[in-house]
Design a protein that fits this description.
Elements lengths: L34 H19 L4 E2 L2 E2 L1 E4 L4 E4 L2 E3 L4 H22 L2 H6 L1 H18 L2 H9 L4 H30 L1 H8 L7 H21 L1 H7 L1 H9 L5 E5 L1 H4 L20 H4 L20 H12 L7 E5 H11 L1
Antiparallel strand pairs: 1-2, 3-4, 4-5, 6-7
Length: 329
């Protein structure tokens, strides 16, 4: 929609849909711990380890994974692919694409929440640096809202300096897949003018990564990502999604009619506070939800405190959610 958003009351989640012309409101997701958070940390550790260490792996005395464009040879383990072998690469990409569609139909957006580079680098690297330098979500929000002074300039300058360094490391690591680690190490000791093409690619990747992971962040998921748009046609009523148990949670605290029994939802907004895209999962399945399950861990922790069963927010199928809503009607 292109409608201007309605500003919510302080402390309440946004109730409007994404507007392409609305001013960006920076999201400061709170820290959360739990079983799904542990799985995400494990996924981040494995995927970042593969990205950074794979160029350094060797196979029969050469780099195990190398896309040598000038020589028109792709090395993948023991395979050597020549230009005439690109038909196999085409089929591989087709199979990977179909696999993504297949697993989306079965398991929803697990790719987005656990394995997408956008999630892995932002949550696993950039937000950790941000927490380390600026503090927790409350401190970060207070810092952003405070007027500029010497303290804020030092903190922000330190954070963005670290972001530039990390982005440059990512850019160099990406370039290593195409130039080779030995040649890359040699080029790093020489003037950029001696290798303008490689330096230009590295600088472009560094700038793109810095912009995306450092500032744009969740806007890519909610506005630009084509996969988020495709999910509506890839998923059906039996696809697994992160969902809120309406029958059990409603009427939530603060919305209980006189004389009615209150549901289990205490309206603490903890599920909204930990969401990296700022959505309220209680409004139903939304395109902006990346199924990271942070809201599940947050809600389960609250249910433990109030001595209620876990699973008010959980992985479920759309058919179960629709049946629940129909029953309430």
């Amino acid at each position: 929609t292109m409608n201007a958003p309605q500003h919510p009351a302080p402390g309440h989640p946004r109730e409007e849909v994404v507007s392409f012309y609305a001013k960006h409101e920076k999201i400061h997701p709170r820290d959360v711990s739990g079983r799904f958070s542990s799985l995400r940390r494990l996924a981040v550790f494995v995927l970042l380890g593969l990205f950074y260490l794979l160029p350094w792996a060797t196979w029969d005395g050469r780099q195990a994974v190398l896309f040598d464009l000038p020589a028109r040879k792709f090395y993948i383990g023991g395979l050597v692919l020549w230009p005439q072998d690109f038909i196999f690469l085409t089929w591989l990409l087709i199979l990977l694409g179909l696999s993504l569609f297949f697993f989306t139909a079965l398991a929803g957006r697990l790719w987005c929440g656990y394995a997408c580079p956008q999630t892995v680098f932002i949550d696993g690297v950039y937000r950790k640096i941000e927490r380390w330098i600026e503090g927790d979500a409350v401190e970060r929000k207070r810092l952003d809202q405070s007027p500029w002074d010497s303290r804020k300039a030092v903190i922000k300058g330190t954070k963005w300096s670290c972001f530039v360094l990390i982005s440059a490391i990512i850019g160099h690591s990406f370039l290593a897949y195409f130039t080779g680690t030995e040649q890359l190490a040699q080029m790093m000791r020489q003037s950029p003018l001696e290798h303008p093409g490689s330096f230009g690619v590295m600088a472009f990747i560094t700038g793109l990564v810095l912009f995306d992971f450092g500032w744009f962040r969740e806007q890519f998921c909610t506005i630009n990502c084509p996969y988020g748009r495709l999910q509506s046609v890839l998923m059906d009523d039996r696809s697994m999604v992160v969902g809120y148990d309406v029958a059990r949670g409603e009427p939530r605290k603060g919305k209980v009619p006189q004389g009615a029994q209150q549901g289990d939802c205490v309206n603490c907004y903890r599920c909204v506070a930990v969401c990296p895209t700022g959505v309220d999962i209680r409004r139903g399945t939304q395109m902006e939800c990346i199924a990271c399950s942070a809201c599940i861990d947050a809600c389960d922790a609250v249910m433990d405190k109030i001595k209620k069963p876990k699973g008010l927010i959980r992985y479920k199928t759309l058919v179960g959610e629709l049946n629940t809503v129909s029953a309430l009607r």
